[in-house]
TrEMBL record:
<feature type="transmembrane region" description="Helical">
    <location>
        <begin position="268"/>
        <end position="292"/>
    </location>
</feature>
<feature type="transmembrane region" description="Helical">
    <location>
        <begin position="419"/>
        <end position="444"/>
    </location>
</feature>
<dbReference type="Pfam" id="PF03901">
    <property type="entry name" value="Glyco_transf_22"/>
</dbReference>
<dbReference type="GO" id="GO:0006506">
    <property type="term" value="P:GPI anchor biosynthetic process"/>
</dbReference>
<comment type="similarity">
    <text>Belongs to the glycosyltransferase 22 family.</text>
</comment>
<dbReference type="InterPro" id="IPR005599">
    <property type="entry name" value="GPI_mannosylTrfase"/>
</dbReference>
<dbReference type="GO" id="GO:0000026">
    <property type="term" value="F:alpha-1,2-mannosyltransferase activity"/>
</dbReference>
<keyword id="KW-0472">Membrane</keyword>
<keyword id="KW-0812">Transmembrane</keyword>
<keyword id="KW-0328">Glycosyltransferase</keyword>
<feature type="transmembrane region" description="Helical">
    <location>
        <begin position="237"/>
        <end position="256"/>
    </location>
</feature>
<dbReference type="GO" id="GO:0005789">
    <property type="term" value="C:endoplasmic reticulum membrane"/>
</dbReference>
<protein>
    <recommendedName>
        <fullName>Mannosyltransferase</fullName>
        <ecNumber>2.4.1.-</ecNumber>
    </recommendedName>
</protein>
<keyword id="KW-1133">Transmembrane helix</keyword>
<feature type="transmembrane region" description="Helical">
    <location>
        <begin position="321"/>
        <end position="341"/>
    </location>
</feature>
<keyword id="KW-0808">Transferase</keyword>
<keyword id="KW-0256">Endoplasmic reticulum</keyword>
Amino acid sequence: MILICVIAFRVLNSQIISTTYNPDEYWQSLEVAYKIVNNYGYLTWEWEPCISLRGIIHPLIFTVCYIAIKFLKLVGGALCGKDSHHFYCISNYYFCIPRLFQSIFAVLTDIGTSKVAYQLLSKYHTRLNKPHTEDESNADSFGELAVSRLGMYQRSLDKYELDLITLLVSLLSWYNFFTLCRTYSQTIEGCINIWAIYYMIKSDQSISDGNYFNKKLLFTGVLLSSLSVLVRHSSAQFWIVFYLILISLQASDALHRSSKYSSSTVKEVLKVCAVVCCLTLPVMIYSDYWFYKKITIPMLNFIKFNLIGDPGQFYGSNSRLYYFTEAPLVTLLSFLPLFLLGVRESLEIESKIFKITQVSTLLTVLLLSTVSHKEYRFTIPYFPFVLITTSLGIYKVISEIQHSLKSSHKNLTPRLHTYFFGLLLNKKCILASLFVQIIPAIFFTTVLRRGGESVIRFFSHLSLKEDDSIFFLSQCHMYPAYSYLNQDVKFGFLDCSPPINQASQLQNLNEILWTHQNTSELLEEVFVPRPSQNSVQISPYISPKIPAKENTSNFESCLNYRFEREISGDLPTFFVIHSHFNENLQAWLRGHNYKLINRFFDSFITETPIGYVYWSYFYIYEKT
């Protein structure tokens, strides 16, 4: 019953999302998967063969969605023909199915988080005590007054163990609701990580209990950790630290003969790790070779890229303490006090694997803090561990109340504990805490930055012609493209690739758009035919009829074509214009026979290359 409720909740969660969090949820997963299945589309600069920063495994997972949609189109076409209702349904598939598919990983994350919590508690803690009778309780009126305010919340929580508390925390977390059903590599990495830790804990417990060494559990844990690295190569930093600590502790135990670990256990761990590496490394190398058409290791490229010159500064920089101050405050909100309490409580957990996980997470976050560019979503793979710690804080609160009720009424300290923790579980406090989680969950998934998907949904419901074209004048990539649109039309925007191997003063086209003094003049340069000294010009559009970026990059001048070649093309059928440019372009649009056909709200506040812009809209103009 609980599993059914969790599945229903995450399915609903996946279909409620109608906003954009970060462009990577489209351009590093769905757009790549769509191009693989349909043989056309646009790839961002990271996927250039000369750069090759991304592994292809993660997008390959989502090719399942587009293969399934193709099958549904064939079945629907055979049954319904090509009527308008069938067309409308097909267009909605591209919005619904990828996130519905992602909800599978969200459910697995929720369940895995609760199962890890159960493994931590079942061995080292007892069940929460049942409600006390008058004969069993020595609490005085002061303590009774504090706890009496708990009502049914106290009586309900008394029945739960840490695993169910953790499951509720995972489901009620606003940040989980906002991110888990989005198609990021971090969300799948987090899902795999929590299950890898689960099997590692099970393996460790089988040895601690004096049972025969369970190779199957260990192999499953190591295999899952390697899959995490395949999905997102930067996951390697966490798992390298994890296994170095694990093997060091096991070797130390074996040398001192002070535990049930032996040298054979260390050998088995090394042997399993070696076998799994031999299985997964060829898969990683071959899959990337298949995509990039050359032997390359994106993991090494990523390390090299980030060690030279800290290029992440191009996307903004944050304080070194960002992941220890702002990030937990924003992602946890009302759960933060309980998390801090749980940090203290987690020191009493005896699980060696969980302690190694905590240390590995801390060291990984410290490594992430050395890079200038930081985002909340980079902590998603480790967020389940944070929620388990938060649940420990909740468990501590409940246990403390029950312990205090058993204590002598003459002792003032238990009474103060009862009053303090009773306040934490007071109805109003609980409702306020839930309110603080629910409001941002709904707001950020349905309101803020909803314009990009709204615009593409509008176009997906139109029956566009092959020679139609759409061009965006807005911040770069804050909207999906063919993976949601699925129409054979030209699609364009001003490129925002970073100046890799270029002089630092060079601006990409999107920066030029936002900083140009006269936007009309810039559009004249791009869309009005003119004689050019540069014989090689590139179109501002992606065309389904031409393979994306064919003959446009090489090893000697990587990404030069995005900076040094002029772009020129015909005026688009549709202009999608951000409200920042809309007013100043009215005369130019009228002069070129464009009329407004729709407007969509985007955001109350939008971060742009020139700072924050307030009350953003997308205006859609059609050429008459």
